[in-house]
């Protein structure tokens, strides 16, 4: 769960207007004002209170610097209850394996603590880095679940789907 000091950094690391690459594949996630970050934090905090899980802040083991975040939230996909695996990292952390490490840890946590729900990741077709993260975390393509998302077509990667 994020700390109070993390809240002040959400605006910068979620979708920093000074670092537009952060939301290149998900432009509807961009935050332009501090009040948007506060509202988002409130929704995330409410999810933690209700379900006991949500998004974790990712840091290097030897640093307090926030690299990004990764976690799960419950949602419905084509009428099926699922957990959505979500990860977003500052561009300065891209290409170093942090997202894959975090997504793998969250996937492991979810399989132990929320074993009854399938895990999915919604990925833009052009976002090959995110596709590699989903695969590294143990998810596989589930083309039959692909569909339209907030920012265009979503490719779905999944684990623990019912047959």
Give structural notes.
With 163 residues, this protein is of the alpha+beta class. It has 4 helices and 7 strands, in the order ααβββαβαβββ. Strands 1, 2, 3, 4, 5, 6 and 7 form a 7-stranded mixed beta sheet that branches. A hairpin with a 2-residue loop joins strand 6 and strand 7 (152-159). Helix 3 crosses helix 4. The protein starts with a helix and ends with a strand.
Our count of helices gives: 4
N-end to C-end Cα span: 33 Å
Tally the beta strands: 7
In the predicted model, the low-confidence regions spanning at least 5 consecutive residues are 1-15
Q: What's the Cα radius of gyration?
A: 15 Å
- Strand % is 25-35%
Query: What structural category arises from helix and sheet content?
Result: alpha+beta
Largest sheet: 7 strands, mixed
TL;DR of this structure?
With 163 residues, the protein is an alpha+beta fold.
Question: Keywords for this structure?
Answer:
single chain; 163 residues; alpha+beta; seven-stranded mixed sheet; 4 helices; globular
SSE layout:
Blueprint (H helix, E strand, L loop, with lengths): L3 H12 L18 H18 L3 E5 L6 E12 L2 E10 L8 H16 L5 E5 L4 H9 L3 E2 L5 E3 L2 E8 L4
Helix pairs in contact: 1-2, 3-4
């Amino acid at each position: 769960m994020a700390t109070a000091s993390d809240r002040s950094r959400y605006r910068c690391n979620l979708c920093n207007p000074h670092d537009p690459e952060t939301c290149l594949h998900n432009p509807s996630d961009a935050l332009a004002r501090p009040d948007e970050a506060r509202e988002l934090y409130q929704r995330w905090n409410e999810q933690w209170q209700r379900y006991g899980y949500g998004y974790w802040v990712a840091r290097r083991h030897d640093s307090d610097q926030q690299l990004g975040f990764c976690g799960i939230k419950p949602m419905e996909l084509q009428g099926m209850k699922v957990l959505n695996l979500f990860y977003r990292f500052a561009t300065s952390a891209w290409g170093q394996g942090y997202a894959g490490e975090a997504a793998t840890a969250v996937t492991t946590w979810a399989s132990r603590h929320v074993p009854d729900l399938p895990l999915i990741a919604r990925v833009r077709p052009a976002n090959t880095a995110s596709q590699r993260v989903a695969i590294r975390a143990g998810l596989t393509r589930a083309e039959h679940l692909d569909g339209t998302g907030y920012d265009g077509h979503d490719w779905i990667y999944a684990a623990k789907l019912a047959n």
